[in-house]
Write a structure and sequence with these properties.
Structural class of chain A: alpha/beta
Helix content of chain B: over 70%
Shape of chain A: globular
Largest interface: A-B, 24 and 14 residues
Helix content of chain A: 25-40%
Number of domains of chain B: 1
CATH class of the largest domain in chain A: Alpha Beta
Oligomer: heterodimer
Number of strands of chain A: 10
Amino acid sequence: MIEVKSVSKSFNGQVVLDNVSFNIKDGEIFIILGESGAGKSVLLKHLVGLIAPDKGKLFINGIDVGSLSERKLLDLRKTIGYLFQEAALYDFMNVYENLAFPLKEHTRLSKKQISEKIKSILQLVDLEGVENKFPSELSGGMKKRVGLARAIILDSRVLFCDEPTSGLDPIRSRDISDLIRDISRKLNCTTVITSHDIENSMRIADRVMIIKDGKIIALGKPKELEASTNSFVKEFVL
Amino acid sequence: MLKFLTNYIFGVLANLGEVINFILEVLGNVLRGKIRLAEILKQIYEQGLQSVGIVILVSLASGIVLALQGVVVLSRFGAKEYISSLVALSLVRELSPVFTALVFSGKAGARITAELGSMSVNDQVLATRTLGVNPIEYLVVPRMIGCFLVLPILTVISEVAGIFGGYLIGVYEANISGVFYINQTFKAIRFVDFYSGFSKVFFFSIIISWVCCFQGFKTKGGSLGVGKYTTQAVALSYIWVLVANAILTKIILSIWG
């Protein structure tokens, strides 16, 4: 369960999040929609403690993220998968090394077990035979798949995806969205996605939240939002 | 005007706080034994290999120029036999530690900032945090320790290369016997001469790695930012190495003479 309570944040006097509150249920696919600069990525970074709120609190499975020391935050993050907008793969490591990195850091798996785990996770994201390639040799979609594989390799039960379809063509966007949905269902992850890809978001989300200028404009199931009378929501969703 | 001045002072103080906080975090990791040997060895290899060629070239050239000038000046006093002492003492006490530090800043230091800066702008530093790994421990500590170990080795290589440059001129230009030149070199350098120069190198290595890692971590603004912060890191390293050299030389001379 993820709880966000009255969170506000400003940068240089500009309000990015304004008294935002919502809950996300276990196993839910929750999508935060909004225009560029609406505060979606900032909100996601708050959830993993990369940014501290000016006001308000955030809880992940009952743990107050803001009260944790940097060392405790590192421990919390081991239980959370995070897919960055551009995947943020280490460009000095090949795909195998990128995926092996969290396993070497946080588990006592043998080399053989790590190799098997990487093979199975690459199968899960439909990307086999790329172990020796470097990120610069991968397409945008492939990078996101590897990023997704790295995010879930520690069997995280919470998955955060920051704009997973940005920069991809419509077909790849659909593939990645479906893949995230399938993996979330299979691993029973609580998944939070920020996006401005309305079509795919409405298709895979359990609930959607729309934010504008740091404020929640609408929150509900995709069908509820499609039936909304709010002019911004109608304009945004339809 | 007053507002501008207040903002400027607060900006400088905030930046100073960040710089100090950064090095304290590095020290905290080192003291807690968060040292990754494999990463340090990789850094020693990369930083050392990258800089050794240019360090040898610069030192050889410095030794040659020192000896050439020495021949002209010392010959006026009928003392050209002392070229070896002039070259050796100049290099060991002053030139090799400073030249090596400056060359190292321009090569390995720039590389450190560019690497970390590129990682910062591509979210790889943030990704390290989200993977539950402290980026200071994983990315900064090995680079700083690598620098701390490589720079003294490069300085010794520089001293040897510089003395060899002087030897070439002494023997082939000033017609001094090779054996005499080498004997005079060893006679001239006392242990105090060696360590008065060598001890500075450890301070220089901390300054260079601190400045370059910090600038890399602070980098923002895409590829343009990487260029800007890398240039800034090299310029700041040069300035602080030269300032530290002046202060350390005064302290060392007042202690050991």
